[in-house]
Amino acid sequence: MSSDPSFLLDPSIFATLDKQLEQESQVRDAIGQIVQRLERAVASAQGLLSRVHSTPPSQYDQLAAQVEEAVRQEIPIIHELDALASQHPYYKYNAKWSRAVQNAIYTAIYCAWLGGFADVQSSHIGRLLTLDQVGAIFAIPVNLTDRDAFHLTIEQYLLSLPDLTQDLARLASNAVTLGDFSLPLTIATFIKHLFAAFQLLNLKNDVLRRRTDALKYDVKRVEDVVYDLSLRGLVSRPE
């Protein structure tokens, strides 16, 4: 038997692996570049949404229109991500884009809560888009089970909701500062109903369970605002 080391290892094995690693690196880089553009677009929408804390509700329709336009700037970028990501197994690279897509979902949901996207659902403050409606806005499939392709997941949708309630709890306090005593009541009702709905879910995802557990703190913050308004006689008591 030959003891020549050259017969013990075929160099082509690692040459092939190196080529595959390089290809995967190129895919990750390409996805990363798209995600960076999406993050910038989402940041623009979030910047507009932050103005809600200094905007009276009478001007929410104008603000919602601006946010809606910013959200629509996210759509072609998400379609680019869809075209590239769908060429590969979903869970191979989804960690690269999951947070950015979750934030994009948040901007659409918050915009609709303020009265935007009237073409998807009747326009009024305090409405919650469904996952299917979010998918319709972005023109992206949701919760795919019949094929391995890019889509919006239930987890991404659910994880965006604690971000919404956290900002709404802050908005309740700022609305009082602006002299609006009715909006905190709307926010309180919305967050309480959302928290109750989450209690019906059997959550297996540890991250999701921890995030949704934090909803009770948002409920408490808004209840404190409403309680203070009630004590001061600034909101009508139920008869």
TrEMBL record:
Protein name per the record: Translin
Compartments reported by the entry: Cytoplasm; Nucleus
A GO term from the CC aspect: cytoplasm
InterPro entries given in the database record: Translin (IPR033956), Translin_C (IPR016069), Translin_fam (IPR002848), Translin_N (IPR016068), Translin_sf (IPR036081)
Family: Belongs to the translin family.
Any one GO molecular-function label of the UniProt entry: RNA binding
Principal location class: cytoplasm
BP terms from Gene Ontology: RNA metabolic process
Record's keyword terms, sorted: Cytoplasm, DNA-binding, Nucleus, RNA-binding
CDD domains assigned: Translin
Gene3D superfamilies: Translin, domain 1, Translin, domain 2
